[in-house]
Fold this protein.
Amino acid sequence: MLHFPAEITNEFEVVDDINFGFFGVVYKVRRIADNKIYAMKTVVKKYGDAKSWKDVETEIKILSELNNPYLLHLERRIDQDNKVYMIIDYCENHWSA
């Protein structure tokens, strides 16, 4: 069973897992208020070294400052305990080989 802070569970519902890696997991989530789909990237702060965490902070800063319809945007950042949750625009992969 997944456990997320109330700040997330009160507003979002996890739909599916998208991907996982060393730092955390990316979930497909639905905002309950309007059914809008987002990606929620969870990053565990304790993994990696100082440079890796600086890279994560740089990613967060860049995503939050982007304002272009062709690029992903960070909708929201939630810090809780040893994790950072990033609510990011969701981009469905419709590519075919």
Q: What stands out?
A: The chain has two helices and five strands.
